[in-house]
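Notebook B, p. 112. Complex prediction, attempt 2.
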Amino acid sequence: MKQLSKKGYLSETARNIKPSGIRKFFDLANEMDDVISLGVGEPDFVTSWNVCEAAYAAMESGYTAYSANAGLLELRQAISKYLDSQFHVNYQADKEIIVTTGASQAIDIAFRALIDPGDEVLIAEPGFVAYAPIVQLAGGVPVPIETTAENEFKLTADQLEKRINEKTKIVLLCFPNNPTGATLEQEELKQLARVICRHDLLVLSDEIYAELSYDRPHYSIARLPEMRERTIIISGFSKAFAMTGWRLGYLAGPEQFLQAMLKIHQYTMMCAPTIAQHGALEALVNGREDVERMVASYRQRRNYFVKASNQIGLPCHRPGGAFYAFPSIRKTGLSSEQFAEQLLKEEKVAVVPGAVFGEGGEGHIRCSYAASMENLQIAIERIGRFVQKRIL
Amino acid sequence: MNEKEMEILGILEENARASISTIADMVELEEQEVSDIIKFLEDKNIILNYQAVINWDHTPVNNGVTAMIDVKVAPKREIGFDGVAERIYRFPEVKAVYLMSGAYDLSVQIEGKTMKEVAFFVSKKLSTLDSVLSTTTHFLLKKYKHDGVIFEPEQKDKRAVVSP
């Protein structure tokens, strides 16, 4: 067989994408036994039984074919109703909603439909690890905006305005935020909206954690005047309905944008998995009580964990949503990567170094409190012991 | 009942051993306030007892047999179903009594050392009660789930150790 020549076969784009910092840490943690993990970005609940049962029933009834490109109409209708009743935003099931293979794919097709080469996308950091690479894959330029602990990692209008230039096209917002748990209130969103409208920008609002808002109901930026027409909402079933492995998300936005995204979706994905869509329909129709039960449980664990973190010497703001605490580890003098690595080796507790979520995350660790109370208590004890030895 | 009381009941129903300080952190109250609420709930007979759920099958103890008995009764004018139920639940062998809708009236759960002992209780003590018209005894073979607790739970967390 002819050997491959030495020339580079990989595309420049692929070569330029940085591997995820989480991956490296995952390999390390995965080799060890008895690790208590606060490193997981997903619910500790399994999917509700009625949802699983609905998926079985769908298979039994032979719903194993493709669905419409945009997703089952019934599901889109249920999403439309759900968005209206929970978040007071209105989207038409037939033209303004696309069911996707996870929110990740929604982000992908949204950026691909909106970005021309060189367009800049503003991303609040610390933020989810996939945003910047997806922007790059679409030919755009990700521009981080650092949010700060002093401000509880909220994005402010000043910070936003400073990064806007003539190339800026889109602002990506993710609140409640992964990894900081930060939330934005109506008034804070209004300030951002003013800047966004003045500069005629679009907003991609990743609201995957919207249900997991603990102190006040989530407010979507699309509700503000003049914002609906320039906002695309991204959400999904993973977090609120404990359905991460089902890979089911959706886009909601104005028809002109969504129809372009649908073109890309139909060629690259065809449709989201049909069986999973039947499960998701059941989740929307009969899942309210389960969501509320899970939210109440996360809230209690948030309350416990954040207080305990502060008590053991890791200062932590009170996150309003998601299931992450993002305490500062500066006092230990370690980088976030050193801290996470040493903690894992010495105390067998896995957390994620803040730096993997962007430079603004350095000096912090992400602790997911989607773990049992028992494990949270053991973890706090171990982290406390670890920190005691290192406080300068 | 206020929201905090309901929340504390929820926590204790799931784990009766949750410490006062942990509960206080979870519901964001002072420890003293939590103690006061629990005392109040106990005094009101809202919290009746704190028990462990035990899978005796995993112990060397012979834990005997359990039977569920469907009991049809003719309620007496003076005492009604409650009176009949009381006559039944006073027996220490009786672990649970429920008033039911449907084909029979009372569901009675009995524990005994042997099937014979349970059968003896039914024929000598339960059936002979004035108001009892008939009984049907079902022996329990295996417990899968009790009070919301699965008896052979899968322990393993199926999530990856670290994920974005």
